[in-house]
Specification:
19 helices, 18 strands, TIM Barrel, cytoplasmic vesicle (chains A, B), homodimer, eight-stranded parallel sheet, eight-stranded mixed sheet, disulfide bond (chains A, B)
C-alpha cells in the first residue's frame, strides 16, 4: 500500500532495539574520519570493516581526532567515580562541574534496571577495571562561576586507559564537552556489564556559534519543554539557545519595568516567563555550557508589543483617516526611544550574554507610507521615499542604545541588506533560503561576522529522512577569502513556532537538529551519510 | 525570518488559551449546517453572526441536525448524574455503558481544578439546573455484551432541556456517540460554572466504516500508544481500528500456534503483542464502539514471517542457484496452505470482528519468476507467464480458508485489479493515489463494496495546515450510479509507521485525522473550512 518510499526504513528503528548494538569482542584498532585533512580519507573497504564493529558507532557529533582499540575496560557502577584530577584548577567548590559529574553518572548508569539489583560483581571475562574519570581543568581562570561566551574554549583531550581515564581541558566548557563524549563511549553489554574501549580523543569545535532557535511567541512553550531542549542541545554539543521570545502573536516575557507588555500581550496570564523562569533557563543553560541569546525583534514583528505599550506602534492610515490598525514600531517619536532605552537596559541586565539579538527582519513599509506624520518626518530628514533609510535610522538608534550597555548585537540579514550603518562588530544572521551563499559572501566581504541559518529551518517538514539534507550543507561553500571564511562563526537550526508546541517540539526537533550539530562541530570531511545514519540511530536511542 | 507562510497562525493556538472561548451570554437560536440537503444553505451573513457566539463552536464532527438556543442550563458536578432512563432496555448490568458514564463524567468535570475546592454552589446568575442525562436505549437487543459491527446502529437523538436531558438511541453504539456529543456541549465558563445550552440533536453517521490504520510493524507501538489512540478515535467518532499488525520489518503478533513467528520475527522479545495485549486492545476498543480489524498481509510484505516459519517464503534464484534471499509466500506448496489454514483459524478466533484484512498488495513477481519450481508450476497450471494469475490462485485459496471460518475479508485494490476471483461480499480498499475516483468507479461497477484510503495517507507530512486537504476530499465524487455510491461504505486515515513511533504518533495523527473523521461522519454539505477551523481548534484543545 505504499510507494517506493514506503519501503525505506525509518530513522528511528534503532531505538526499538533498546540496547546499543555493540558486539562483545573487538580486536582491531580503528582510526576514524575527523582526522586532520592532511591524512588520507579512509577507503570504503575500511568502513565495511568498521560497520557495526566499534564502540564509537554511537559518537555524535564525531570528535575531531579519535583513536580506539579493541581492548575493553569494565566499569563498576557502584565504584566508578567522576573526580577532579590532580593539578586541576577546579575542585569541589565548582558546583557546575559537580553537577555535571552527577548528571553524567546518571546518564551512564542510572537507566540500567540491573543496577537496582544491588552491588553486582564485575563480569567474569577478566577485563581490567576502569576506576575513575579524572577531570583536569588547566587554566587558572577556568570559568566555573561565569557564563560561556563566544570565545570560550571548548576543546578537550580524553585518554581512556586503565586504571583511570583522564579528561583534560583548558576551561570548564571543554570539560563539559568531554564528559558528554566520555558518556557516549560507555556502553552496556547484553549481560549488564558496563564497558568502554581504550581510547584517545582530541576534540574541539569547528565553529564557535552552534545554536538552536526556539520560538515562544507563536506558541508558548512551558518551561519544561525549554529545559528538556537544553538537555538535548548538550547531548549534541550545541552551545547557543537563540530564544525568539516575543513576536507579533504574543509577548510572554514578563518585563520588570513594563509588566503591561505581557499582561496584555501574552496569550494569557499563565502563558508568561517570569523573571524567575528566565533566570532558571539561563542557569540551566549555563550549567550545560550553553549561552542564552534573547531576541527582541523590532521594528517589525511587534504587534503584541502594542497591546501593552501605548503609542509604541505606528498608526496606519487610509487616506486622511487612521484605520485603527498599527504597523511597525513608530520610529519618529522620542517616546519610542525613551521606551527602548529603558527596556533594553532591563534586557541587558537580565540576560548575561554579551549579545542581544535585535531582529530587524521583514519590516513592512506600507503602514509607514500611509502615515502623514511619518511622511513629514521623511521629508524633514531628506529620506525621500526610501523607507529603508527610515528603517536604518531606527535600527541605528537601537544599536546605539544597546551599545551603550556594552552589549554586542546580532541582526537578521535585512539590516545589512538595507544598508543600515552597522558597527564593525555586528553579527549578521543569514536566513533567506535563496542564494544564501552569495549573501554570506557579501556580508563577510563587508567585514561583518556572519551566522548561517538559511538551510536549517527545521519547522519546514517533509516526508522522509530530511536530516540528510541538513547534514549535507557545507557552510563554507561560498566565494570568499580565507579571512572571509573566518568571519562565518557558526550556524543555527531554527524551529519556528507556527506549528510547534509542547506536544510536538521534541520529536520534531530531534534528532533532525543533530545533523546540524555534527555539521557545526565535526571536521569538514565528516560527510559520509551511511556512517552518519548508523551513529545517529544509536545516538537517538541514547537520547531517548 | 520567514516566508509568507511564516505568518500563518498555527492550528494549535487554541490549545494555549486553555479554556474554550465561549461568551457568557447567548441570545439567538441558531440552526447549523448539517441540515438535510433540501434546506437552503445558510448565508455567509448568518455565519458571521454565529462566529464565536454559539456553544456548538466546539462540536466535532458536526452532528447531522442540530438546534441550540441561547437558553443556558447549569450543571453542578457534585450532583449531576448520567443515568439509565426510564424505558431503557439497558440498566446497571451493562458494564459498557456504566463505564462510559464514568468516563464521560470525568471528561466533563474531572479536569476542572476548581472542583477540588469541594462542593461549590451553583453560579448566582439564576440559570435553571440540569440534573441528569438520562440514557434510553430502545432496542430489545441493544448490543451491550456484543461487539460493534458494520451494521451497528450509531444513530442517536439528544434533547437537552431542564430539568433532564434525554439521550435516545436504538443500540448502545448510538448511546456512546451521543455521550461524546453531550460532553462536547458542556463547557466551563470563566468563573468555573459548568453550562450547557438548550439543544436538540439528531445524529447519525454518513458512512458506516470510519477507520484509522496503525502500523505496528515498521515501528512497534507500545500498548499505551494504541489505547490512547482509541480514546482519540472515540472523540472523533471513528469506529474501526485497522491494525496493520505485521509486515516485512517485524512480526510483533505473538501467535499461540506459531510462537516462533514473533520469537524470531519481532524486533525483540519485548516488542510483541501477547494474547493478553491483543485482548486488551479489542476490549478497550469495544467499550468505545470501535471494531478491531487485524491485517495479516500476504503473499507480499511477509519477510518477517519467513524468520519463524521455515519454507513459507519463496526462495529466489539467480540462474540455477538459490540466492539465499526470499520473496513472497510460496504459493505452490501444500505446506503453505496447511500453515495458513491453522494460522487463520487462530486469527479468526482471536479477533471477534466479522472481517479480517488479508492485504494482497504490492506483490513483487521477480522472485517467483526466478524460481524454477514456480515456473514449472505455472506451466502445469496453464498460467503461461501471467504471474497475476498465480497471485490470484494464492489469494483465492486464502479467501476460501478464511471464508470457511465464517469471516468476511477486506483486500487492497491490487487483488481486484489483478482480477482474482472474488466472492461478491469482498471489500476492496482503494489506496493508490492516482485516479482513485476511477478505481472507485471500477470496483463498485463490478459490484464490490469499497473503502477509500488513497487521499488520507497521513504519514505523508508537509508544512502547514494539511488537514484542509484531507477535509476537502468528497468520497462520493466518482462516476457511478446511486447503487454504486451505496457500495462505498467509508474510508480510513492511514498512518504508516516508517517514521512514526511512540514519540510522535499522537501529535502527528491528531487532529489531522479529525478532518477525515468529520468527512466520514457529517453531512456532505459540511465543507466550510473557516467554520471547521474554529471548531477544530476548540476540539483539539478539548482533546488535549
Amino acid at each position: 500500500r505504499r510507494s517506493g518510499m514506503g519501503r525505506a526504513m525509518g530513522l528511528a528503528v534503532g531505538l526499538l532495539l533498546g540496547l546499543l548494538l555493540v558486539p562483545a569482542v573487538l580486536v582491531s584498532t580503528s582510526f576514524r574520519r575527523g582526522a586532520p585533512p592532511s591524512e588520507p580519507t579512509p577507503e570504503p573497504a575500511e568502513w565495511e570493516l568498521a560497520w557495526g564493529a566499534v564502540p564509537e558507532d554511537s559518537l555524535w557529533p564525531l570528535p575531531q581526532r579519535l583513536r580506539t582499540s579493541g581492548r575493553q575496560l569494565q566499569l563498576a557502577p557502584g565504584r566508578f567515580q567522576l573526580v577532579h584530577g590532580a593539578g586541576s584548577s577546579l575542585g569541589p567548590g565548582c558546583g557546575l562541574l559537580e553537577d555535571a559529574f552527577r548528571r553524567y553518572y546518571e546518564y551512564m548508569f542510572g537507566q540500567s534496571r540491573r543496577r537496582q539489583r544491588g552491588h553486582r560483581p564485575l563480569g567474569v571475562r577478566g577485563e581490567p577495571e576502569l576506576w575513575q574519570l579524572q577531570v583536569v581543568v588547566e587554566s587558572p581562570d577556568p570559568g566555573c562561576q561565569s557564563y560561556p561566551h563566544l570565545a570560550s574554549n571548548e576543546a578537550y583531550h580524553l585518554t581512556v586507559t586503565d586504571p583511570v581515564a583522564i579528561l583534560k581541558a583548558d576551561e570548564v566548557w571543554g570539560a563539559l564537552r568531554g564528559l558528554e563524549t566520555f558518556s557516549q563511549l560507555v556502553y552496556e553489554d547484553d549481560y549488564g556489564s558496563f564497558l568502554v574501549n581504550e581510547s584517545e580523543i582530541d576534540d574541539f569545535p569547528r565553529f564557535a556559534h552552534r545554536g538552536i532557535l526556539l520560538d515562544t511567541s507563536r506558541h508558548y512553550l512551558p518551561l519544561k519543554s525549554i529545559l528538556t531542549n537544553l538537555d538535548a542541545m548538550a547531548f549534541n554539543k550545541f552551545n547557543v539557545l537563540h530564544w525568539h521570545i516575543v513576536d507579533d502573536q504574543s509577548f510572554p516575557y514578563q518585563s520588570i519595568y513594563f509588566p503591561e507588555l505581557s499582561d496584555k500581550g501574552a496569550y494569557s496570564y499563565d502563558h508568561i516567563y517570569t523573571p524567575t523562569d528566565v533566570y532558571l533557563v539561563i542557569e540551566y543553560a549555563r550549567l550545560r555550557g550553553i549561552r542564552v541569546i534573547p531576541e527582541f525583534d523590532t521594528p517589525g514583528h511587534t504587534q503584541s508589543w502594542g497591546k501593552g505599550q501605548k503609542d509604541l506602534l505606528t498608526p496606519c492610515y487610509s487616506g486622511e483617516q487612521p484605520t485603527g490598525s498599527f504597523g511597525p514600531v513608530n520610529p519618529i517619536l522620542n517616546t519610542t526611544y525613551n521606551f527602548m532605552t529603558k527596556f533594553f537596559k532591563e534586557i541587558s541586565s537580565v540576560f548575561p550574554d554579551a549579545y542581544i539579538h535585535l531582529g530587524g527582519d521583514e519590516v513592512n513599509f506600507d503602514c509607514w507610507k500611509s502615515n502623514p506624520e511619518v511622511k513629514e518626518f521623511m521629508k524633514e530628514r531628506g529620506f525621500g521615499i526610501d523607507y529603508a533609510k527610515l528603517e536604518s535610522y531606527y535600527i541605528q538608534k537601537i544599536l546605539d542604545i544597546v551599545s551603550s550597555y556594552n552589549k554586542g548585537y546580532i541582526v537578521w540579514q535585512e539590516v545589512f541588506d538595507n544598508k543600515a550603518q552597522l558597527k564593525p562588530d555586528t553579527v549578521v544572521e543569514v536566513w533567506m533560503g535563496k542564494n544564501y551563499a552569495h549573501e554570506l559572501s557579501s556580508v563577510t566581504e563587508a567585514g561583518f561576522t556572519a551566522i548561517l541559518a538559511a538551510p536549517w529551518y527545521l519547522d519546514y517538514i517533509s516526508y522522509g529522512q530530511d536530516w540528510k539534507k541538513y547534514y549535507s550543507v557545507e557552510p563554507l561553500n561560498f566565494t570568499g577569502s580565507e579571512k572571509q571564511k573566518k568571519l562565518l562563526i557558526g550556524g543555527e537550526a531554527c524551529l519556528w513556532g507556527e506549528f510547534v508546541d509542547a506536544t510536538n517540539l521534541t520529536p520534531r526537533l530531534w534528532p533532525r537538529a543533530s545533523a546540524v550539530g555534527e555539521r557545526l562541530w565535526s571536521n569538514r570531511n565528516v560527510t559520509d551519510l551511511r556512517d552518519a545514519y548508523k551513529r545517529l540511530t544509536n545516538h537517538r536511542c541514547r537520547m531517548l
